[in-house]
Amino acid sequence: MTTEATRFSLSDEELKNFHARGYAGPFTLYEPDEIKRSWARERLQLLDRSDAVYQDDAAVSGSTNIANYDRHLDREFLADHIGRPEIVDRVAGILGPDVLCWRSEFFPKYPGAEGTDWHQADTFANASGSPQILWPGGSDFGGTITVWCAFTDATIEMGCLQFIPGTHRTMFYDETKRMHYDPDLVNAVDKGGVRRGFFGYDYRELQIDPDWKPDESKAVSMEMRAGQFIVFWSTLMHASHPHQGRTRDMRMGFVGRYVPTSVRVYPDTDAIEEYGGQVSLERYGAVLVAGEDREGHNRIATHTTRNHPFRRRDV
Q1: Which run of H or E residues covers position 147?
Q2: Is the peptide bond between 260 and the residue preceding it cis, with omega within 30 degrees of 0?
Q3: 92 three-class SS
Q4: 76-123 tens-digit pLDDT
Q5: What are the extents of the domains in the chain?
Q6: For residue 297, what are the CA distances in angstroms to 147, 179, 293, 301?
Q7: Of 274, 315, 296, which is closest to residue 54 (Cα–Cα)?
Q8: Residue 212 contacts by C-beta under 8 Å, 6 or more apart in sequence?
Q9: What is the DSSP string of 41-77?
Q10: How many Cα atoms are found within 13 Å in the side-chain-facing hemisphere of 295?
Q11: Over the chain, what is the mean pLDDT?
């Protein structure tokens, strides 16, 4: 019998395909008119950073991608979003019953913007050189489950996601090499006739084999209408198309990242260092979205009030 807690879990066939391909979906979370209204309201309210967890560091100026992390910790709509059963049931069916959302972030793509380069993420050490998540020793998995939701239409012309199915089981990059940030690389890298960069980094710096190239002949484009989401391993080779600028509308994706509670989040560090900026983790906490925190080794944020959804609970 399907219960309230598991009614959105992946079917056996969907789960089998997920493990083979590295992704599942798209699935519908909001109707297009619903998310259009919600996003129009939310994008204005996000300008108020008075309760944002990252306040005092250089990155908060908005000049780097790190400034838009974890707004689910101070915005009620986003706090509700990351815990929606349509998302959590599917994620828990993959990761197990005890699940944390350890990060959220926005991925806007404006008219004329470059595509995002092919990449994988396992420990998320690519920018700082220090792992941001660590699975227990001997784990069969690595990386995080990424849930990418289209807050606007995401078409090929507007820069939708691309995947190379089945690539999530082999890492083609060594994240310990650490990339070097150069803001002059933004919108300035041409790869095979396609403008494709990585937020001021060149992901080729991490390649294990410097002569290797992704097999783009196997790539699939993940077009989604506003309100749909897709679930994928961060170790799956993924990228995005450039925004061709044929419309003045931006493409906006909102991402939640999920791991089991056994994974250590931001181990042995008090700051996130990426994209030429740094933010303190003093007010940060991961959110328990399913099950129990049986491990007790992560910073956890607990729900408080509508005006400030979460507060950190020290471990």
Answers
A1: strand 145-150
A2: no
A3: helix
A4: 999 999 999 999 999 999 999 999 999 999 999 999 998 989 999 999
A5: 4-313
A6: 24, 29, 9, 13
A7: 274
A8: 172
A9: HHHHHTT--TT-S--SSGGGGTTSGGGGTTGGGT-HH
A10: 18
A11: 88
Selection from 91, 67, 46 nearest residue 256 by Cα: 91
Determine the topology of domain 4-313 in CATH.
Answer: Jelly Rolls (2.60.120)
Q: Output the pTM of the full model.
A: 0.91
The amino acid present at 239, given as its one-letter code, is A
Residue 74 scores a pLDDT above 70 = yes
* C-alpha to C-alpha distance for 194 and 115, rounded to whole angstroms: 8
CB atoms inside a 10 Å sphere around CB 137: 5
pLDDT tens-place string over residues 225-235? 999 999 999 99
The DSSP 8-state label assigned to residue 91 in this structure reads: H
The size of the chain, in residues, is 315
Q: Is 80 exposed, middle or buried (0-12, 13-18, 19+ CB in 10 A)?
A: exposed
What's the rounded Cα separation, in Å, for the pair 313 and 315? 6
Report pLDDT digits (tens) over 4-38: 446 899 999 999 999 999 999 999 999 999 999 99
Pick from 230, 301, 311: which is nearest to 266 by CA? 301
64 falls in which pLDDT band (50, 70, 90)?
A: low
Which is it for strands 99-109 and 251-260: parallel, antiparallel or unpaired? antiparallel
Question: Cα(144)–Cα(135) distance, rounded to whole angstroms?
Answer: 10
- Given phi > 0 = left and psi -120 to 50 = alpha, else beta, which region is 227? left
